[in-house]
């Protein structure tokens, strides 16, 4: 597993499909797409996504029926419906048949990303294999209780600050974290230094991890940093 959460976006409007694909990939998700009900079922069966963003109105069927078919096939992924319908009856039907949330068009992309993250948190609150205190990303393992990090089975010596920084990144795999967020989490809100301290410690952490595997900390220029594989 490479640490990326798999999201399938299903919508027959190319502009919405392209926009959501771009936004979700920017936020670190591995995105697959489909434009019809039949394609959605086929892609979901092959990819086994962690979450599906599913338009209710599709050219060859109904998204609610797609949801029903996916649940019948044993897919446990989160499902966020995306639709122009806002009648309470439609919402209740979609959620009753196995949907997890319902976003009405027009919508804010920030709101949609927040809903996606909220559903994923509800579905897997441990964010891992259920082992208390142990975080894993790609070939990196962080044991919080023992304050120990291994990469590819080899111990990686980190300072307490480097350890806290890596832990914060590993608790948010794929997510772009701003310097302000990192300062607040790793150094606490009363830290009065400049934001370059984040850049400095990111550099330290990259150098500590580099001998044991490929780069996993990426820079989102003008935004912050994210833990990702494949560049």
UniProtKB/TrEMBL annotation:
<keyword id="KW-0804">Transcription</keyword>
<dbReference type="GO" id="GO:0000156">
    <property type="term" value="F:phosphorelay response regulator activity"/>
</dbReference>
<keyword id="KW-0238">DNA-binding</keyword>
<feature type="DNA-binding region" description="OmpR/PhoB-type">
    <location>
        <begin position="132"/>
        <end position="229"/>
    </location>
</feature>
<feature type="modified residue" description="4-aspartylphosphate">
    <location>
        <position position="55"/>
    </location>
</feature>
<dbReference type="InterPro" id="IPR011006">
    <property type="entry name" value="CheY-like_superfamily"/>
</dbReference>
<dbReference type="GO" id="GO:0000976">
    <property type="term" value="F:transcription cis-regulatory region binding"/>
</dbReference>
<keyword id="KW-0597">Phosphoprotein</keyword>
<dbReference type="InterPro" id="IPR039420">
    <property type="entry name" value="WalR-like"/>
</dbReference>
<dbReference type="InterPro" id="IPR001789">
    <property type="entry name" value="Sig_transdc_resp-reg_receiver"/>
</dbReference>
<dbReference type="Pfam" id="PF00486">
    <property type="entry name" value="Trans_reg_C"/>
</dbReference>
<dbReference type="InterPro" id="IPR001867">
    <property type="entry name" value="OmpR/PhoB-type_DNA-bd"/>
</dbReference>
<dbReference type="GO" id="GO:0005829">
    <property type="term" value="C:cytosol"/>
</dbReference>
<dbReference type="GO" id="GO:0032993">
    <property type="term" value="C:protein-DNA complex"/>
</dbReference>
<feature type="domain" description="Response regulatory">
    <location>
        <begin position="6"/>
        <end position="120"/>
    </location>
</feature>
<feature type="domain" description="OmpR/PhoB-type">
    <location>
        <begin position="132"/>
        <end position="229"/>
    </location>
</feature>
<dbReference type="Pfam" id="PF00072">
    <property type="entry name" value="Response_reg"/>
</dbReference>
<keyword id="KW-0902">Two-component regulatory system</keyword>
<dbReference type="InterPro" id="IPR016032">
    <property type="entry name" value="Sig_transdc_resp-reg_C-effctor"/>
</dbReference>
<dbReference type="InterPro" id="IPR036388">
    <property type="entry name" value="WH-like_DNA-bd_sf"/>
</dbReference>
<protein>
    <submittedName>
        <fullName>DNA-binding response regulator</fullName>
    </submittedName>
</protein>
<keyword id="KW-0805">Transcription regulation</keyword>
<dbReference type="GO" id="GO:0006355">
    <property type="term" value="P:regulation of DNA-templated transcription"/>
</dbReference>
């Amino acid at each position: 597993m490479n640490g990326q959460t798999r999201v399938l976006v299903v919508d027959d409007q190319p502009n919405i499909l392209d926009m959501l694909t771009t936004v979700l990939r920017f936020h670190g998700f591995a995105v697959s797409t489909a434009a019809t009900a039949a394609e959605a079922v086929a892609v979901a069966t092959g990819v086994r996504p962690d979450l599906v963003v599913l338009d209710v109105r599709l050219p060859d069927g109904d998204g609610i029926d797609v949801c029903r078919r996916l649940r019948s096939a044993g897919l446990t992924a989160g499902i966020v419906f995306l639709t122009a319908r806002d009648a309470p009856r439609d919402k209740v039907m979609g959620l009753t048949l196995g949907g997890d949330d319902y976003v009405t068009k027009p919508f804010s992309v920030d709101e949609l990303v927040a809903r996606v993250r909220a559903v994923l948190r509800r579905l897997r609150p441990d964010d891992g294999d259920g082992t208390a205190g142990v975080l894993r990303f790609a070939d990196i393992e962080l044991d919080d209780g023992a304050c120990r990090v291994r990469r590819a089975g080899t111990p990686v010596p980190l300072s307490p600050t480097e350890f806290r920084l890596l832990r914060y990144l590993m608790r948010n795999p794929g997510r772009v974290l701003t310097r302000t967020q990192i300062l607040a989490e790793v150094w606490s809100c009363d830290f009065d230094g400049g934001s370059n301290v984040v850049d400095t410690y990111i550099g330290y952490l990259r150098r500590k991890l580099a001998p044991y595997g490929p780069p996993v900390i990426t820079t989102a220029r003008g935004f912050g940093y994210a833990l990702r594989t494949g560049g």
